[in-house]
Amino acid sequence: MIDMEKVTRGLAEFASERFPVDKLNFHSMVEKKEVPIHRMSWGYYTGGLTMFFFMIQVVSGLFLLFYYQPTVSDAHVSVEYISHHVAGGALIRNMHAWSSSCMIFFAMVHLLTAFAMKSFEKPREITWIAGVILLFITFTFGFTGYLLPWNQIAVNATKVGLQSVEYVGQYLPGQLADVPRILRETFQGESSVGQSTLGRFYALHVVILPLLLGALLGLHLLSVQLHGMSQGVDVPARKSEKFVSIFIFKDLTLWATVFLALFVVALCIPFDSLLPFPLLAPFNALGSTPQGIKPEWYFYFVYYPLELLPFWVILIASIVVVSILFFTPWIFKGTSRRTLGFIAGAATAYLLVMTIFGEQIYHFFKH
Ligand code: HEM
Fold it and tell me: Which tens digits make up the pLDDT trace of 242-255?
């Protein structure tokens, strides 16, 4: 028989160690906070940078809302209107697009550094798990935002993406096999990608995902502040600096520099100019699917393997990687930071190679 009292006591103990409410005061969370100084200290800036890009997304996204129309008849025209006729519209749209890529890039770097620094160790398991969910939400922001300009390439890419979700059902047993189809129908909303899909992606992109991300980020930051910065290296650092005001000052200087760089890039380089397809062609249901459509760069690490290997291999690999990510604090409990650094380095090499050379690798094996 399960001893309910023991279970409840165990759960209460787990929660009180992860959220020590006695430290919920200005002195413990702000005045006393120190940031260790060592060779991996730069890793402590990556979460703040990701958060800064999220702030830019919220502000630039709110400006875009003034003019964007979430209907299949007007979405594309409204985006073109923003780009060519609204004062500063192209700048805001470019900032939103560039900063979305930066947010995803830094969320990945942040995960890799937090892993290498073993920042997931007890009592930071909840910080880590909230982080993993934040990363998935960030990817979903990218997927839903891609459809909103309602252009030929985006609508077709979304069809492929949603079909892949349904495809998973073939490999699941019993009634579980229906879940991916139900998911696709829920997000698609009608028999083919159309007005209902655009409406649902819009609701996700501008309301549901920001609220979810905001709430989880609150939990993430609360647990970071309650526990202070993790040690980060195997031999405890001998030096540290005050969070207020030294580290915060450096953080703000970095944010200001990054903002300036983003501003100049958004002013000079339209995000669309780097894409291999004419992004500005509106969706035409009678038009042909563009040859060789690709998702955004941040999905290449899974897209090219999907093109080269059987679907079930990628499915199993994804389930394994996602499970490892969620259970990292327990799986790598006894692993040294040296080994963790090695694993993070290997993962970084894989991500870089697939993102930069994915297309060449694809052609090499296909021809
Ligand atoms: C939207 C995405 C995210 C935002 C905005 C964010 C933000 C932050 C911030 C501001 C910090 C404190 C400064 C720092 O240590 O860098 C932090 C710490 C942390 N984050 Fe994230 N984070 C995100 C995603 C992630 C992901 C994907 C993971 C890993 C799965 C993660 C794991 C952690 C951990 C373990 C800490 C504690 C670091 C320490 O104590 O030294 N976060 N995050």
Answer: 999 999 999 999 99
**CB of 144 closer than 8 Å to CB of 205:** yes
Tokens found for residue 364: 């090499």
**What is the average per-residue pLDDT within 48-52?**
98
Determine which residue's CA is closest to atom 28 belonging to ligand 1: 131
Residue nearest ligand 1's atom 6 by CA: 47
Count the residues in the chain. Answer: 367
Both structure tokens of 280: 């500005």
Ligand 1 atom with the shortest distance to the CA of 108 = 27
Q: Whose CA is nearest to atom 31 of ligand 1?
A: 131
The domain defined by 34-276 folds into: Cytochrome Bc1 Complex; Chain C (1.20.810)
Q: Which two tokens stand for residue 136?
A: 């998935």
Q: How much is the pLDDT for 88?
A: 96
- The token pair at 148 is 């909103």
DSSP 178-240: GHHHHHHHHHH-SSSSSHHHHHHHHHIIIIIHHHHHHHHHHHHHHHHHHH-----SSSPPSEE
Q: Whose CA is nearest to atom 43 of ligand 1?
A: 47
Neighbours of 244 (CB within 10 A): 11
H or E stretch covering 242: strand 239-242
How far apart, in whole angstroms, are the C-alpha atoms of residue 194 and residue 336? 51
Whole-angstrom Cα distance, residue 41 to residue 49? 14
Residue 277 pLDDT greater than 60, yes or no: no
Burial class (CB in 10 A: 0-12, 13-18, 19+), 258: middle
Query: What is the phi/psi pair of residue 268, to 5°?
Result: -100, -35
Q: What is the pLDDT of residues 105-124, one digit of tens each?
A: 999 999 999 999 999 999 99
Residue 16: both structure tokens together: 């009180």
Distance 178 CA to ligand 1 centre (A): 35
- DSSP assignment of 9-21 equals HHHHHHHHHHS-G
Q: Is 130 in the pocket of ligand 1 (CB under 6 A)?
A: no
Measured in Å, residue 59 CA sits from the centre of ligand 1 at: 21
Is the minimum distance from the CB of 217 to ligand 1 under 6 angstroms?
yes
